[in-house]
Write a structure and sequence with these properties.
Blueprint (H helix, E strand, L loop, with lengths): L22 H4 L12 H10 L3 E4 L3 H6 L6 E2 L5 H4 L9 E4 L2
Parallel strand pairs: 1-2, 1-3
Length: 96
Amino acid sequence: MAYGAWGFWTQNQSSGVGGTLPATQVANIPYPEVKRIPLEEAKRAYDEGSAVFLDVRPASAYSAAHIPGALNIPLNELPQRIRELDPQRPIITYCT
């Protein structure tokens, strides 16, 4: 599975991962086509170790603070480093 910035999305729509937001909430969110998951699901994935948490901030921000165990690939490096990610594992991206 592949996932996108600001939350979860999947290439396999039948997987049941992700959700949709009301149209009124989508207007102000970048990449509205990207499916999101609730915080509770992200926390469960973290606790179970079933997903990769990908921090897409610059290395300096990652060094200052990050989710323990998260992988850091700054967004501007992602195209060159995408092969470092396992497409078989869920990936939850974050940048704040």
